[in-house]
Amino acid sequence: MSVREPSSRNTTPVPPGAGSPSKYDLVLAAVPALLFAGAVGGTRLSLPTPTAAGVGSALAALVVAYGLFVSPPGGSRRAR
Asked: Where does the chain cross the membrane (predicted)?
């Protein structure tokens, strides 16, 4: 039984920073995490579930508003 060495010709260079998540990846990850935390927090804490889910939803909405309006992905483009 022989073992072949992997060929180095089939490799593609990895651009710098390709493995690290961007700010917008973190925004997209934070939204369901906050919704889930609100729903679970309502069942585990002494808060009513609708109140805790509402707090989680409000925090998720703030994160979305930050990602869209405070620091938009496309930079600052002015409408002409």
From this structure: 26-45, 51-70
